Amino acid sequence: MSSASVSPHGFTGVRGRGYRAEQVDRFVAGLSQERDEAWERAARLTVLAKEMEAAAVALGEQVAALAPQTYESLGARAQTLITLATEEAEGLRSEALAAAQRLYDEAGAAERALRDAARTDADAVRAAADAYAQELLAGAQGTSDELRIGSRRDAKQWRGESLGVLREMRARTADLLAELEKEQGERGEAAEHELASREADFEARHTELISRAEARLAEAQRALSVTEEQARHGQEDAEARGAELIAQARVRAERVERETERVLRENTEAQEELRAHMAHVRSSLASLTGKAPAEG
Question: Which member of 88, 183, 195, 272 has the greatest number of CB atoms within 10 A?
Answer without folding.
Answer: 195
